Amino acid sequence: MAKIDVKNLYKIFGPRPHEVLKHAKKGAPKDEILTKTGHTVGLTDISLSIEAQETFVVMGLSGCGKSTFIRCINRLIEPTAGEISIDGRDVLALNKSAVKALRREKMGMVFQRFALFPHKTVLQNVAYGLNVQGVAKDERQERALHWINAVGLDGYEHARPNQLSGGMQQRVGLARALCTDPEILLMDEAFSALDPLIRREMQDELIRLQKELHKTIIFITHDLDEALRLGDRVAILKDGRLIQVGTPIEIVTNPADDYVRAFVRDVNRARVLTAKSIMEKTETLPIHTSPREAAKIMTLQHRALGVVVDNDHRYRGIVSMAEASAAIKRGENDLQGVVKERAPTIGPDTYLTDLLSLSADSAEPIVVLDDSDLYLGTLSRSAVLTALAGKSDIDDNHIGSDSKGLVETPEDTGAAG
Amino acid sequence: MDVVTSLSTWLRGCLSGFGIITREFPEACQIPLKEWTNSGLKSLVRNYGDIFDVVNDQILFLLRKIEGSLLALPWWLVILLIVMVAWHASRSRWLAVGLALSLIIIGMFELWDDTMRTLAIMLIATTITVLIGIPIGILMASSKYIQAAINPILDGMQTMPSFVYLIPVVFFFGLGNVAAIFAIFIYAVPPMIRLTNLGIRLVDAQVVEAAEAFGATSSQILWGVRLPLAMPTLLAGVNQAIMMALAMAVIASMIGARGLGAQVLRGLNNGNVGMGLEAGLAIVVLAVILDRITASYGRRLDYSQTA
Questions:
Q1: What is the DSSP string of A149-199?
Q2: What is the mean pLDDT of residues A275-286?
Q3: Average pLDDT in chain A
Q4: Which fold has domain B49-300?
Q5: B213 touches A at CB < 8 Å
Q6: For residue B5, what are the CA distances in angstroms to B11, B17, B44?
Q7: Per-residue CA distances from B286 to B104, B107, B122, B276 (Å)
Q8: Closest CA to B176 of B131, B121, B124, B242
Q9: How far apart, in Å, are the Cα atoms of A68 and each of A63, A74, A170, B295?
């Protein structure tokens, strides 16, 4: 069961939303409804589910309804129609006090303009949620201090918000939202008001915290780079409609329509694509394979290099066609004598941006290994370049060839191009 | 009952009156508001006179206490107390010294006792204004309909010539200080209500939304967020109320308020310009003191300014 389930959610702003709802349900466009009825359509037929512990980013330009969407989740804005359930419980059926209880116990929220209480100290701000819950003062302070330290603001607990910089204020906002230990974190353009460098810093902070905390985070942003960086999944809204939901890699490599395509055109693919998404898996050569057999397999696969693994499929190194031929001449029985660990190795979640220099410096393809050195795949330089250029389909099982190749056949180059 | 019968007679007369077009306004059409008001007031006093007496006694008791203690204290101690409050509010040496000097000048005018009497009346009138004005202001801020209903009443209270409501006040409380305090209250409460309403409405909507997002109840939001953040505007309201009250001091003396206003009135009656001037200057000094103190507190509570 999904943590948060949203079905056919509509929000129409104006004096008589329910009359206008009929037009919206028939699919009348937003502009037409506005000119005909004077009502603004905030959200149209949004259905999505958000899994527990995932960072779900809702992305769109201003006026697309993303802030309305996040406020529907905790009912700061009342949806006009549709269903929202959290842990299987119908949120829209709750009465006012039950909604308040839900907000107190399950949700924390971080705001674009911080929205700190200017008359309270950092400590009082962070402890506010507990204060509202009626937690005793000592416990309140202790827990608030813990979170102040966790966001790196130790020593500032008695400062007032207006004495802090923007980045620090938003750390207070984050600590305030986390202090009640909510399961769900709602972040409304939380980093948009910050300078680019500070924003980056706060994104790292959030990623770091999330690794420990495993909250269900709904993060609103208008910045695609931020969305792709933070999101486990990204939803793209346009004019109150849901255009696409998918992992960052799906969004970048497989945009649903021209709108999304235009968005992702300028995105830095190197920051989104990981080694896992562009690597190719070749047949491995067990260490006891005879050099002759190895050469045969490489020739059949049109490869100049073979990846050698031991009996437990652990990576041992690579062997080139030339080396295999030499071993055949020397009459060796296995690859023990020729295998070399000269290719660079990386983890599957390494971003393209972090392996570019590795790929440029190394004559050999990069080998992708998991935590226990099991072989996952290979990244040739041409695969890295095509992925960067955005021309290849990631699932295309093209063959990387390298300068050392003995068997550089026409088919080989064709597939790689 | 007689209100109902008189209303129906008037309506009947009014309807028949419209049958004839004449130069004179049809006599039957006139509204006898005068008579209604007077008979209404009479029945109020007749039926609830005891309540007015109790209120009168309570306020008089309080006034005597405050006036008594202000007059019992030695002049220099009073000055010291006021200077300390001013220092606490503003942390300004110059303000403290200036206030002390102007209070000494009042003493030199031989107006010390009258100033203390006026101060006592101001304190009580302002306290009543604050205690009644702030809750009404909060109520007004809670809904736009209540605001729409109260606003014209406040407009009326502020534009109605002040002599007009001196009459009913005397009717209820008789001549004297309590009547004066109520006259001052009616004059001073509109700005208090308006500025409370304004202050609460001006509180940053995002901050209120944040409190809501954490599940705060309406009263938690009111006491923990709205009122503290509205405090600078609220204190501006107190400040305005005090200024209004001082402006009423002379007029209130016409219905028996003692103090500086009475001195001005005596100067007016005797054609004694000097006497009026001295008392007038003392009122100005009092106004400056109370204004600076409340304004300084307002500034200190304004968190939107950088600390």
A1: HHTT-TT-TTS-GGGS-HHHHHHHHHHHHHTT--SEEEEESTTTTS-HHHH
A2: 84
A3: 86
A4: MetI-like fold (1.10.3720)
A5: yes
A6: 10, 18, 19
A7: 12, 12, 10, 15
A8: B121
A9: 9, 10, 21, 40
Does A103 sit within 8 Å of B214, measured CB to CB? yes
Residue A375's DSSP bridge partners are: A369
Identify which has the larger pLDDT, A357 or B126.
Answer: B126
> Tokens for B101?
């000097």
User: B23-68: per-residue pLDDT in tens?
Assistant: 777 777 778 888 888 898 888 888 888 888 898 899 999 999 999 9
Cα distance from B41 to chain A (closest Cα, Å)? Answer: 45
Q: What is the largest CA-CA distance in chain A?
A: 89
Mean pLDDT in residue range B90-97: 89
pLDDT at A414 over 70: no
**Cα distance between residue B242 and residue B262, in whole Å:** 18
* Structural domains of chain A in order of their starting residue, each with its CATH number: 53-69+94-267 (3.40.50.300), 275-416 (3.10.580.10)
Domain residue limits, chain B:
49-300
For chain B, the farthest-separated pair of C-alpha atoms sits apart, in whole angstroms, at 76
> Does any CB of chain A come closer than 8 Å to the CB of residue B218?
no
| pLDDT at residue B222 is higher than 90 | yes
The per-residue pLDDT for range B98-142, each reduced to its tens digit, is: 999 999 999 999 899 999 999 999 999 999 999 999 999 999 999
- Kindly give the pairing relationship between strand A55-59 and strand A40-50: unpaired
- Which residue in B has a C-alpha nearest to residue A117's C-alpha? B207
Which pLDDT belongs to residue B126? 93
